[in-house]
Specification:
By secondary structure, the chain is mainly alpha-helical. The protein has helices spanning 4-7, 9-69, 76-79, 114-117, 143-154, 158-163, 178-183, 208-217, 229-238, 247-257, 272-283; strands spanning 88-95, 101-106, 203-207, 226-227, 262-263, 268-271. The protein folds into two domains: 1-80; 138-286, no CATH class. 49% of the residues lie in helices and 9% in strands. Residues 1-28 are annotated as: Disordered. Keywords: Nucleus.
Length: 286
């Protein structure tokens, strides 16, 4: 026998709203805890990088003094302190055929390597170089591929940056790949209407290192039962069958995942069980 409250549609609706609010609070609390943990890791990493840079500066200064002492001429680009500039990714706001908008970011072509500086020296004379990134038979092991995949899934949150552009607490999307992009966009028009708040075809730049770092760090949120687009990309890359994945297969995964990407006010999320099903269908068992 159903109670009067269970028979009342308005009472059932109120209970549904209360459950949704509790779920939202629980999700947000989990997200905040994950962000706090990530900030702690990033601060420790930044401190270690700063110490490493200081050591490198001291070594370079000492090496220049030794070279000068031995009257060895230096090339012009090494004779003075280098002008440090971060390579920039070019960002464009694109309108799709269904009149929705999405963000595309083109990373710069890789610059010269340490091998270019030490050309002509013997192997024993040249310093150790960074290992070459792992090759992929279909060219998918690149930061550009990851950026394209993740931004394609994050487009559901594009309009949220305009709606929350003046919120003192931020947009709630800080660990998304889109966050550093939108933080450097042309001025947004604050609005409650759907849209990015930017004109069609807007173009701007963002340091590519910020996008690459988020691809590395933002896979550590560990949200129970859900997965972010960046986590999805990392899971795909770490799958044993990733070397056999074609670009067409990756595009198929993105198309299957896109309708299931949801945002509860703090970033794009995908149901983990659904993602696992899609990855199993396209890539096979892990």
């Amino acid at each position: 026998m159903l109670s009067a409250e269970e028979n009342d549609p308005r009472a059932r609706r109120r209970e549904q709203v209360r459950r949704a609010q509790r779920t939202h609070r629980d999700r947000k609390a989990t997200y905040v805890r994950s962000l706090e943990s990530e900030v702690t890791k990033l601060r420790a990493s930044e401190a270690a990088h700063d110490a490493e840079c200081q050591t490198f500066r001291q070594v370079i200064r000492r090496l220049r003094e030794l070279i000068k002492y031995h009257n060895i001429p230096l090339p012009p680009d090494l004779a003075s302190s280098p002008h440090v500039s971060s390579p920039q990714a070019t960002v464009e706001l694109v309108t799709l055929p269904d009149h929705s908008q999405t963000i595309r970011a083109q990373l710069p072509a890789p610059g010269f390597s340490t091998g270019d500086i030490f050309a002509g020296t013997s192997i024993s004379d040249a310093p150790d170089q960074e290992p070459t990134p792992m090759a992929h038979p279909h060219g998918l092991w690149t930061a550009q591929t990851g950026v394209d995949f993740v931004l394609g899934l994050e487009q559901v949150c594009l309009e949220h940056h305009a709606v929350h552009s003046v919120d003192v607490e931020g947009t709630g999307h800080e660990m998304m790949l889109m966050s550093p992009i939108m933080s450097r966009s042309p001025p947004l028009q604050q609005t409650t209407e759907p849209g990015s708040g930017l004109p069609d075809g807007a173009v701007w730049s963002v340091p590519s290192v910020e996008l690459e770092r988020l691809l590395e760090f933002a896979d550590r949120l560990r949200l129970d039962g859900e997965i972010t687009p960046v986590e999805a990309w990392q899971a795909i890359r770490q799958h044993p069958s990733f070397p056999n994945l074609t670009r067409e297969g990756l595009d198929s995964m993105k198309l299957m995942l896109l309708p299931e990407v949801k945002c509860y006010g703090f970033g794009a999320l995908i149901d983990r069980a659904y993602f696992d099903t899609v990855m199993l269908q396209i890539m096979g068992p892990g």
